[in-house]
Amino acid sequence: MSDVKKVVLAYSGGLDTSVIVKWLQETYDCEVVTFTADIGQGEEVEPARAKAQALGVKEIYIEDLREEFVRDYVYPMFRANTIYEGEYLLGTSIARPLIAKRLIEIANETGADAISHGATGKGNDQVRFELGAYALKPGVKVIAPWREWDLTSREKLMAYCEKHEIPVDFSKSKKKSPYSMDANLLHISYEGGILEDPWAEAEEDMWRWSVSPEAAPDEPTYVELTFEQGDIVAIDGEALKPHEVLTKLNKLGGDNGIGRLDIVENRYVGMKSRGCYETPGGTIMLRAHRAIESITLDRESAHLKDSLMPKYAEVIYNGYWWSPERKVLQAAIDETQKHVSGVVRMKLYKGSATVVGRKSEQSLFDESIATFEDDAGAYDQKDAEGFIKLNALRLRIAASKGRNAS
Amino acid sequence: MSDVKKVVLAYSGGLDTSVIVKWLQETYDCEVVTFTADIGQGEEVEPARAKAQALGVKEIYIEDLREEFVRDYVYPMFRANTIYEGEYLLGTSIARPLIAKRLIEIANETGADAISHGATGKGNDQVRFELGAYALKPGVKVIAPWREWDLTSREKLMAYCEKHEIPVDFSKSKKKSPYSMDANLLHISYEGGILEDPWAEAEEDMWRWSVSPEAAPDEPTYVELTFEQGDIVAIDGEALKPHEVLTKLNKLGGDNGIGRLDIVENRYVGMKSRGCYETPGGTIMLRAHRAIESITLDRESAHLKDSLMPKYAEVIYNGYWWSPERKVLQAAIDETQKHVSGVVRMKLYKGSATVVGRKSEQSLFDESIATFEDDAGAYDQKDAEGFIKLNALRLRIAASKGRNAS
Amino acid sequence: MSDVKKVVLAYSGGLDTSVIVKWLQETYDCEVVTFTADIGQGEEVEPARAKAQALGVKEIYIEDLREEFVRDYVYPMFRANTIYEGEYLLGTSIARPLIAKRLIEIANETGADAISHGATGKGNDQVRFELGAYALKPGVKVIAPWREWDLTSREKLMAYCEKHEIPVDFSKSKKKSPYSMDANLLHISYEGGILEDPWAEAEEDMWRWSVSPEAAPDEPTYVELTFEQGDIVAIDGEALKPHEVLTKLNKLGGDNGIGRLDIVENRYVGMKSRGCYETPGGTIMLRAHRAIESITLDRESAHLKDSLMPKYAEVIYNGYWWSPERKVLQAAIDETQKHVSGVVRMKLYKGSATVVGRKSEQSLFDESIATFEDDAGAYDQKDAEGFIKLNALRLRIAASKGRNAS
Amino acid sequence: MSDVKKVVLAYSGGLDTSVIVKWLQETYDCEVVTFTADIGQGEEVEPARAKAQALGVKEIYIEDLREEFVRDYVYPMFRANTIYEGEYLLGTSIARPLIAKRLIEIANETGADAISHGATGKGNDQVRFELGAYALKPGVKVIAPWREWDLTSREKLMAYCEKHEIPVDFSKSKKKSPYSMDANLLHISYEGGILEDPWAEAEEDMWRWSVSPEAAPDEPTYVELTFEQGDIVAIDGEALKPHEVLTKLNKLGGDNGIGRLDIVENRYVGMKSRGCYETPGGTIMLRAHRAIESITLDRESAHLKDSLMPKYAEVIYNGYWWSPERKVLQAAIDETQKHVSGVVRMKLYKGSATVVGRKSEQSLFDESIATFEDDAGAYDQKDAEGFIKLNALRLRIAASKGRNAS
User: Fold this and answer.
1) Contact D387 A382 (CB under 8 A)
2) All partners of chain C with 3 or more CB pairs under 8 angstroms
3) How far is CA B251 from CA B92, B220, B279, B281, in A?
4) Are residues A278 and A141 in the same domain?
5) In a domain, C38, yes or no
6) Whether residue D225 has pLDDT greater than 70
7) D278-313 per-position pLDDT tens digit
């Protein structure tokens, strides 16, 4: 195991990844570079510096990636109205490619030959980190301690801490919770604990980002979202950067009990797992984006997008952000968004984000044609007969041969 | 126009179709057979008999099709989690094929050579009626008065009534509304009026089937739905027929402010139109069906279904229920539903239908594998390395040739 | 019919379109502008000038569009390996959008308010011309004489000629043939005559561009095709423009009996029709393009392309080149072609175009990994176990629940 | 390694799998059951009995599976016009699920707890065998010697033979060839040797099943193929069983130089590999099947099939025959074949299989509509105008807003 000289670790500052720092130093006899990023998880990242230093780390990267995260990952994904398995907004999936990219860039900067992460061998995140890493630096060595070590229980982990004098308070995270959680600007997720029984309802005090719909205000909140080429650029007329948009929508959504989700999903590694998610801002964004598309996007482009979406969602969920197929899909999706600009008005109320209005200078909604009133010749109803007749022709021929019987 | 001997008309008993009866008799000098069906629109159908008789109709068909409607049309469609353009549950679309089928069957029974309907030349319904009719009886003549006559304004229509002594009270429908509405067991729709401005919010008193979320009870309602092979067969343990299921879910949903929708959609005839819909029961069903699938359906079957769904939705929306391609898609979808059985528990509260539990004897959720705790060897985490390595191989080769750069 | 002032006609110089010139002048009392293009149909276009002048046409457009045709239409289409219904290379379909575009451009230049063409009301070409025209100039008036006039038999047409003194020799085209034919640089097509019986074999003397395989040389011809980003740029090392490439490949293919096709296809207007096609160069191009992709294109991008291709083919066949959905698909396809460069070696022999070699600096074929010999550790066979195990996991869980029985 | 009691081995009777018998006995100290099947590879299978006995095997299965192979695997696959990556007819892929099924059935019969095969760790076949095995018997142990042992060179293998007295003549196969070959009734494949250079042309004497097109008869052969519900049931009017059909078509095709293929394909394990294939009968079948579909299959069903085919091909290529998603796709495909019956006439000549005629009582080709002559009102050309106008509507609206510019 001596062939690794230096490894860049995705370091949260928590107990587990602190143990990994020590374990890497010890097991591989190598230098460890830590990388800690603020992607909106809601915890301070700066304290990771002292912890890493205490563990003997010399090269410490601490970065605020919130804007890049939303601009280059969340926004492109939302252009496709991306949902995995009909429900999941991919909040965890979309954060991994950015981390993978920075791990590799830091490896290149620091001359490291390996990267490491704290994801287990059962989940999707290991796949996402590693596919990204291999795609960006094909010769990189990946170390996944959870697949290698024998610290397979809480007790063994604690014993290891004690032996290696890893400060106990590293574990005093705010995350005192029976759940395994993960958070970034797009969402917070919960797994494990009683959720391992899919029949059990999540406890109310599990949810951290949103009030319960029951506890939300009795008055609805209205908000206007301005889109440019598929992305939200302003809220109620105030221009905002992408991460500011999402931050504000998370607040609005959370206050109104919006964005809770409780699902069983199919992991790429082959098992079903139960997860709960809070995606307040994303839930609003998705609905609003569909609404602005509804008046600005051509029908066939919209249907084509819809037919590609499940594949695109799968690609992201499975960890192939840094793949050629994702770029191909993105090229198609981005092509559809050129005219997706305008304003959507939404009503937020006790768990629901409802579209109540949409307008755009790019609108293809033609009131003069659609009207139930006299349209002054904008549309000739007689055209419909030929339209139907020719669309029916193949059905009629088949029927005349005795097919199509009900 | 004398080549039509007898025509079967889809007759609602309302003013418009009553005018059509007279207009057909007069214009085509033919016998008119009326067909009025209860598909759950919430209005008595029996009164249509006297009205038809008053118009001189001799062959009058009045039928309760509610069970057939839900069993053979709504349920098969919901097996696919069908949504048009990301939002619309196809409440109007799915009722048309049944009407088309009965029109043709009655034409065959009565020796009629034509059918007729009251849909306009701008909408989707004319297409759905007529494609169905042609597919089932290729030589049938279709008469669409709205595309033919000159009664293009309310005034002309009223003048026609007066001239032909069509009783005034035919227009005293309960539908005193500025909106064009359509209802069946799955939904009620609203178009026209102020909705023709996509920026205008629908007025609260437009909605007929649901209370506003604001006015819904302050306490959530829990309900358990039992599925067999993809279809709901019981509510809270009580076995129900398909139309009874939907009737009950409509009540539960409506009482809790569930199922309102306000969208701009793309019609098959080429224009965008704005519609509002209430689909209380359907909204609950869709969510519940996804939930029961989440534990009983194989991942790849589920993803395959998801990729076919937009096409399936389009086929139904565009009126191709009675087409070979719909049957092909249905064969695929039905094949997936063999094990989609079990119970879903839902919480209904102020506009939201939330899944809080799901269980099944057919469950593929394997807690012993998914657990965060010790899995006693059910899953070997080391397998993940090879899995990732080979999935990454093509990406690594590409990267080694200088591709994939971020 | 007096609302048309000036109409641009797609004019071949043949008898039918000459009649149309006169019929338009007479029926619409309007000025006619003729547009005649060389797109490689193999007939002189300049003679059309005198004919048009003789008919009183003042604005006459005669253009050589061969390079534009291949560069901007044929090449982009071949990047997708486009085939309609498994067989047809879309030779007619792909020429129509260019003609439609020029008709509209000329209408704009000459101040014309209408366009006209000589396609019948039964075929696809009317749709392709008119969808293109409407997409590029929404208010244009389209005149399709074959759908309007009563010159529905050869006799009536001839009588019209005599009456209007349209010179008899206009009909002395080289196309003395019982078939309806259409040609451009990509193909020549045959319809009608004995082909209307799908069981009847086409007569040998019908084919005009290729010798029969039986009559082709007894020695194979080898040729090397150089691709850059998906397009052929050189043949046997000689750099050529797109239309020169296709001209040369047509010669090579035709001489070797390559590219004949005899099919029944499904028209957009709803009927099946039988057609025979010769596409010598295109047949070679398609095979060669697949071959260069086979070593330069990533697997998942390739599979994604393959899954989009049927839709793309349908879009082009149905006449939607100038649609947003075609642009979306093209964006995806073009994104895949960035590295599709290299050389393919083919053997042409008595009707077959066979790939015998392919090489590229962009090749992703890694001999050191693929080899059956010792690979010096380039690939760890043990990785396969984990790969298979996790891919099998969902199947094993299902099987353990009693599913999957053969 | 002592936990295996009895293992069923896919045994060819050749040297490699004979070594595996011994190696399994020695390494796992277990009983070995051999299974040898005739799936049309063109070699006697009975000699495998004596060889297995000589190796101390007590339970020996030797079976003729040719009919089952074609009827239950090849035929269903051809109903979909299945081609992998535009070229490959999946000759190897489709044989593996049957072998996997029989291995598991024999394991169940003999009380074996493991299966084994002679596929390497680099190829697709290991995946196909093992996914099948796991899907049908989730707890089975799979032993893949090539991934485990150290007999990684020909020398080591020979040394092992000598040491264990495995008769030398076991290696005297007819397959004296520099290529790795695999054969069954559908095809014979070649890999390795000079083929590892994708630029190198295969040597003429490599090909074993077909004469070269150059050496094929100078006179074409005509053949009539009768289909019932998508499957060939007779040749030139003679009723034949599925495997007899394929045997005869292989002879006809091979004699006429038909079915050679030289490609680079993308393996599921992530690498590109070069392979040459001879599929004489399959090449004829595919073309013929498309032809009978062309007159009997509805357009939209046909296009839907075409859009599903790449997925279906991928599923089979990757080894997921025994998966739920294959069954879903098969259900859709089989639904399309109900009327795919009739006769196709083909011309075989020097490498080409050309369709020259097709007829069917189920034909949807309607000459009275398609004709260029007077159709007596079967089709009203004026219908085309409305058809085009409404299909153009969305394009016109977009254009009127300044989009669609060329």
Assistant:
1) no
2) A, B, D
3) 19, 14, 11, 8
4) no
5) yes
6) yes
7) 999 999 999 999 999 999 999 999 999 999 999 999
Measured between beta carbons, which residues in chain A are less than 8 angstroms from residue C147? none
Distance, in Å, from the CA atom of A23 to the CA atom of A149, rounded to the nearest integer, reads: 9
Question: Once rounded to an integer, what is the mean pLDDT over residues C240-262?
Answer: 98
**Residue C57, H or E segment:** none
d(CA D271, CA B393): 7
Q: Is B396 assigned a catalytic role?
A: no
Report d(CA D129, CA D95) in Å as an integer. 10
The residue behind tokens 């050529």 is: C240
A319 to chain C: which residues are within 8 Å by CB? none
Give B375's pLDDT tier (boundaries 50, 70, 90): confident
Cα separation, B375 vs B384, whole angstroms: 15
How many Å lie between the alpha carbon of C99 and the closest alpha carbon of chain B?
Answer: 24
pLDDT at position A336 over 80:
yes
Measured CA to CA, the distance from residue C3 to residue A377 in angstroms comes to: 16
Contact C199 D358 (CB under 8 A): yes
In a shared domain, residues A207 and A138 = no
Q: Which residue is it, tokens 């990771």? A: A48
Do B122 and B218 fall within a single domain? no
Is a pLDDT exceeding 70 seen at residue B265?
Answer: yes
User: pLDDT of B224-250, one tens digit each?
Assistant: 999 999 999 999 999 999 999 999 999
Domain that holds residue B355: 181-297+339-359
Pair (D30, D155) in one structural domain:
yes
CA distance D387 to chain B (A): 9
C48 and C138 share a domain?
yes
**Catalytic residue list of C:** 16, 96, 125, 180
Q: pLDDT tens for residues D321-340?
A: 999 999 999 999 999 999 99
DSSP C180: E
Q: Are residues A46 and A140 in the same domain?
A: yes
| B355 and B388 together in one domain | no
- Is the CB of B349 less than 8 angstroms away from the CB of A351? yes
Ramachandran assignment for A197, one of left (phi > 0), alpha (psi -120 to 50 degrees), beta (any other): beta
Closest partner CB to A393 (pick from C270, C311, C336): C270
d(CA A85, CA A310): 8
Q: What percent of chain C clears pLDDT 90, i.e. is strictly above it?
A: 89
The two tokens of residue B101 are: 């089928």
B393 CA: distance to closest CA in chain D (Å): 5
Q: Is the distance from CB of D264 to CB of C360 less than 8 angstroms?
A: no
Specify the number of domains making up chain A. Answer: 3
* Structure token digits, residue D173: 């196969």
The DSSP bridge partners found for residue D59 are D33
This complex has an ipTM of 0.95
| Structure token pair of residue C183 | 């040609």
- Residue B177 assigned ligand-binding role: no
User: 3-state SS of C251-270?
Assistant: HHHHHCCCCEEEEEEECCCC
DSSP notation for B34-72: EEEEESS-SS-STHHHHHHHHTT--EEEEEE-HHHHIII
Buried b / exposed e across B257-266, counting CB within 10 Å, b at 16+?
bbbbbbbbbb
CATH number of the domain at B103, please. Answer: 3.40.50.620
Strands A352-359 and D352-359, sheet pairing: unpaired
Q: Cβ contact (<8 Å) for A367 and B263?
A: no
Residues making up chain B, counted from first to last: 406
The alpha-carbon gap from D256 to the nearest alpha carbon of chain B, in Å, equals 37
**Chain A, chain C: beta-carbon pairs less than 8 Å apart:** 76
Whole-number Å distance between alpha carbons of D272 and D268: 9
Residue A15 labeled ligand binder: yes
pLDDT above 60: residue D1: no
**Binding site as annotated, residues of C for L-citrulline:** 88, 93, 124, 128, 180, 189, 265, 277
pLDDT given for residue C153 in this prediction: 81
